[in-house]
Amino acid sequence: MKRKAKIISLVLAISLLLGIATTAYAASGTCEVFYFTYQGSVGEGGSATIQSCLSNLGYTANRYADTHAYYVRRTMNSDKVFAIVSHGAPGRVVCKDGATTMSASAVSSDSSNYSLAAWFGSNDLKGMKFAYYGACNSATTDSTYGNLITYTTDTLGASSALGFTKTVSDPQTAYYEAQLFGYLQSGNSVSSANVLARAATYSKYKSYGNVDSALISGDSTTKIN
Amino acid sequence: MKKKNIFAVCLAFFSLILAMGVCRNNVIAANVTGADKEEKAISIVESLTDSYSRSAAVIVPNSLYKEAFAEELIAVGKDSYVYLFTEELNVKAILLTDEANQQVIGEITSEDTAITAVKEYANKVMPDFFEVYDCDVLSSAYGEGNAAFYSIELWQKISDSFYTGNKIAVIVNADGTLQSFVSVNSDLSDAVMTYANEDSLSEEAAIGVAYDALTDTVEQLEKEVNVSYAVSPEKTGTDIIISDFGEEVDLTNLNAELPKYEIMIENTADHEVVTYREIKDGSICWVVKISNVETSRVWDMGFEVTVDAQSGNVLSVSNTR
Questions:
Q1: A165 CB-near residues (< 8 Å, 6+ apart)
Q2: pTM: predicted TM-score of the whole model, two decimal places
Q3: B254 CB-contact burial (10 Å; exposed 0-12 / middle 13-18 / buried 19+)
């Protein structure tokens, strides 16, 4: 009888350990998702799905609208995952009211621009697993404003970043980013999630809307789950 | 007896672990439903891949695949790829799902050789695609070094700038490894094809209709009253905002120096306009793409207007970010 009790206890203990091990894999930490609703803006895009996927993974995922570039940038160093859904131009993404922008390089001639270079030092984003810049030309290098995705990974130390090298269209991009985070939630790497999301977008809309121009900087095997 | 109990408990435990492993891989027996189709799908996959690589097996399609590709799918996994088939056993997609065991589809040294490799591979996967119609090739090269890749689309065409809507899209790395293969289909029924040969809206008329549609769209985008309220809060703080160059920023004057938000739709000299006809959802459509449209902000815009070539009705308007 005693031996039977011991066996039951042993099985229960192993089950408990397995449960704890599984729980330990749940993601934790803060994520920020930004979108904008000013005149001519992109709107919510896939931001609601992005927030939902991050929450499902166990992150504390906050979603903000119409935020000044200063505040978009301010706490990126606390984020495990950062995502912005907006308009863009080579080297920068557009923030509140279309009146402020966020770039990689500091630009002395542009007082409405808030750069990563002016706010963060080397490796300040080393705790960030993934940064998603969901805007036109967000992965394009500009001789003045720099390159957001390579600066985010190579200088600031984030594991991976994704942006686009062409002007991207909606509804394809909104669908793409929702799929991208859906596949990331399923445990795919950034690279694999990108492959699957691009293909899904083409299948759905019979065109990429230029999301095939998505480029990844840093470690494309990064997973966020 | 007691030893038997211990053995039974251990056996049950390991069976549970094994079952969990099987569930993780989503492998199901090929003979549960539509066994013949599944066997046929497996044989198609085997014919497309190296004989020495891991055997193909039917898998349960991810729910995301069903949403994006088709509700009824047969999914076969082999090496690092998932092959998605329709119930009619047409290849819907071939998708790289991890980077461990990638498939080389041809020797690639340039964009031209990438196009050749993709056409040969597409012909192997979907020979029917090339039987009746020629196709146009759209290709783009992206990335550099080890991250370089080509995005190549094959558009089946009826005549110059007139497409069936049947397309194949392939993304292949510069080293020849396949990232993805997607096919999309259109309605090429006799009724539609007869309709295709009838007189329809001219190209000039279609561009006119597209610009008229843009006038309305631009008005909506420019009107602040039409901006929907944000459902999320603005992120704020108590900081005094300092610009990158040490100046204190007054948020109340954020927009004071901004010009009125305008989309310069009337500056047509700068616009790039591309048109073509395509069969979409059983209709012949003009697709009018207008890009390089300047705005009073830092971003340019582009628009795509789809016009029914028979009725002249605008079916959709989309814009870039």
A1: A137, A139, A140, A213, A215, B142
A2: 0.88
A3: middle
B191 token code pair: 């009724």
Q: pLDDT, tens digit, for every residue of B170-213?
A: 999 999 999 999 999 987 777 677 766 676 899 999 999 999 99
Return d(Cα B129, Cα B73) in angstroms, integer: 20
B180/A199 CB distance under 8 A: yes
Q: State the smallest CA–CA distance between residue B254 and chain A in angstroms.
A: 7
> Strands A113-115, A130-134: parallel, antiparallel or unpaired by DSSP?
unpaired
pLDDT at B306 over 80: yes
Burial class (CB in 10 A: 0-12, 13-18, 19+), A154: middle
B179 at interface of A, judged by CB pairs closer than 8 A:
yes
Per-residue b or e along B161-185, where b marks 16 or more CB atoms closer than 10 Å to that residue's CB:
eebbbbbbbbbbbbebbbbbbbbbe
Residue B248: alpha-carbon gap to chain centroid: 45
Cα dist from A83 to A42, A96, A129, B287, B306, whole Å: 14, 15, 11, 32, 31
* pLDDT value of residue B243: 86
* CA geometry: angle A135, A137, A138, nearest 5 deg: 60
Please check the confidence at residue B112 and state whether its pLDDT lies above 70. yes
CA gap A195, A83 in Å, rounded: 18
Report the alpha-carbon distance of residue A195 to residue A197 in Å, rounded: 6
Chain A within 8 Å of B225 (Cβ-Cβ)? no
Asked whether the beta carbons of residue B249 and residue A70 sit closer than 8 angstroms, the reply is yes
In this prediction, residue A116 carries a pLDDT of 98
User: What ipTM did this prediction achieve?
Assistant: 0.87
Average pLDDT for chain B: 85
